[in-house]
Design brief:
Largest interface: A-B, 28 and 29 residues
Order of helices and strands of chain A: HHHHHHHH
Helix content of chain B: over 70%
Distance between the termini of chain B: 21 Å
Number of strands of chain A: 0
Function (chain B): Required for the export of heme to the periplasm for the biogenesis of c-type cytochromes.
Protein name (chain B): Heme exporter protein B
Largest sheet of chain B: none
Low-confidence stretches of chain B: none
Membrane topology (chain B): Multi-pass membrane protein
Number of domains of chain A: 1
Mean pLDDT of chain A: 85
Number of helices of chain A: 8
InterPro entries (chain B): Cyt_c_biogenesis_CcmB, Cyt_c_CcmB_bac
Distance between the termini of chain A: 44 Å
Oligomer: heterodimer
Strand content of chain A: under 5%
Radius of gyration of chain A: 20 Å
Order of helices and strands of chain B: HHHHHHHHH
Number of strands of chain B: 0
Shape of chain B: elongated
Structural class of chain A: mainly alpha
GO cellular component, one term (chain B): plasma membrane
Chain lengths: ~250, ~220
């Protein structure tokens, strides 16, 4: 297997040009998918026999929660990539994705609270999953705060990579410790190994909106990374050419 | 410089700067005192909450103590000397963390019988609380040393260390207080202690290396 693609990722210039044509289609496709999934889920999917119409918030809650976790996984892995291979793109990715992940975690929390009111009768319970998403949100905030308070770029890169990796190692421990501590939440909606318990008319729109949100976030991340690359490489010639290409 | 001389210096510095350790301990006492005053002084409330109060106060006190762990060494340049000393930086960090841990934990344990009495901690669970403190606090120090190392170059790092480190402290708090609670209810608690020990071993394997990376990045 050739590793050239992996080594190419080390070059911000190559990454910038490669991702330039990718961000908009990904973002657009994601928006369309998400909208499609949401409209299908909210307007056309059958009612839940127990929770009635209130379950429909699942079409925003579950994708947001999945994305919040996936973003952190990506963050931790790229932190590892940076610590091992010193790849220049990795800290740029972390900086670009951390706020997006934080927003996803916040969305999951808020939509969960809104969903909790009619089903559990309360906005918030100290349940394992809610608490672990709250912790995830705090982890994101910590990363963002660290990134913002360190002015030295090389130090900020290292520091954020270290904390992401430590977070990645710790996240399963936090999750399981909280799970043993208190559980009220329903089980996972999607698992890779089992068939979903809900009928297809319900989970297909959910799947579509999840895929849509994934693409949307990926497009957003690429855009944010491009901006960050331009800022960090503003002294290099190719950036000057890139910016001057369309005139000032 | 050898490892032995390093750890000797560490203890000497800690001894000569007693006030730093005292501050952390005083902070611990203040937090403990706030609960009966602020919430409820009756034994009905305090007895079941005692272990939780003691653990929360411990975590806060350790976060206080750990934030300044590398500050002095950073400003006077001894951290740079450690980096170029040719000794293993991870091992040095581990020794430093151990010294800090002992300096805070030993006086804390000495105060524990008194505080347990003041908070009406049920007799049977006292020794379990002591055991959770002994095997739980090393993880707090090890994980916290990463945060202290990451923020060493900042003037106002205390709040940031709290924000960064508190999520990582959750498992320790949960396992420790669950163990004490299980002991109070007469349930088996050895499994929870084992989990606490596992978290300690995991942080022992990871934290010194991460701290060393962060120190190297900060001193450049």
């Amino acid at each position: 297997m050739s590793w050239t693609w992996f080594h190419k990722l080390g070059s911000p210039k190559w990454f910038f040009h490669w991702s330039k044509s990718l961000a908009l289609p990904l973002f657009g496709f994601g928006c369309i998918c998400l909208l499609f999934g949401l409209v299908w889920g909210v307007a056309f999917a059958p009612e839940d026999y127990q929770q009635g119409n209130s379950f429909r918030i699942i079409y925003i809650h579950v994708p947001a929660a999945i994305l919040a976790q996936s973003c952190y996984l990506a963050l931790g892995l790229s932190g590892l990539v940076f610590l091992v291979w010193q790849m220049k793109i990795a800290p740029i990715f972390i900086k670009a994705v951390a706020p997006v992940g934080a927003v996803m975690a916040l969305m999951a929390l808020v939509s969960g609270a809104i969903w909790g009111k009619p089903t559990w009768g309360t906005w918030w319970v100290w349940d394992a999953r809610l608490t672990s998403v709250l912790v995830l949100f705090l982890l994101y905030m910590g990363i963002i705060a660290l990134q913002n308070s360190l002015n030295d770029v090389t130090l900020a890169n290292k520091a954020v990579a270290v904390i992401s990796v430590v977070g990645l190692i710790n996240l399963p421990i936090i999750k399981y410790s909280v799970e043993w501590w208190n559980t009220l939440h329903q089980g996972a909606t999607f698992t890779l190994t089992e068939k979903p318990a809900m009928p297809a008319e319900m989970w297909v729109p959910l799947l579509i909106s999840t895929i849509g949100l994934y693409c949307l976030v990926a497009g957003l991340a690429l855009w944010r990374m491009q901006t960050e690359i331009l800022i960090r490489e503003h002294r290099s010639n190719w950036v000057k050419q890139e910016v001057m290409k369309d005139g000032l | 410089m050898t490892y032995l001389s390093f750890i000797k210096t560490e203890f000497l510095v800690l001894w000569r700067r007693k006030q730093d350790v005292f501050n952390a301990l005083l902070f611990f006492i203040i937090v403990v005192v706030l609960f009966p005053l602020g919430v409820n002084p009756s034994s009905d409330f305090l007895a079941p909450a005692a272990d939780g109060i003691i653990w929360c106060a411990t975590v806060l006190a350790i976060l206080m103590a750990i934030e300044g762990m590398f500050k002095e060494d950073y400003t006077d340049g001894s951290l740079e000397q450690l980096v170029i000393s040719g000794l293993s930086l991870s091992l040095l960090m581990l020794l430093k963390t151990t010294a800090q841990w002992l300096a805070v934990l030993l006086p804390l344990l000495l105060m524990m019988p008194l505080l347990a009495e003041m908070l009406y901690l049920p007799d049977g669970s006292f020794w379990v609380l002591i055991v959770t403190l002994v095997i739980g606090t090393p993880s707090l120090f090890l994980i916290g040393s990463i945060g202290a190392a990451l923020t060493v170059s900042l003037k106002q790092g205390a709040m940031l260390v709290m924000l960064l480190m508190l999520p990582f402290y959750l498992p320790v708090i949960i396992f420790a207080t669950s163990a004490v609670r299980a002991a109070q209810l007469g349930l088996p608690y050895l499994g929870l202690l084992a989990m606490l020990l596992a978290v300690f071993l995991l942080s022992l394997v990871i934290a010194p290396f991460m701290t060393a990376i962060a120190i190297k990045a900060s001193t450049n």
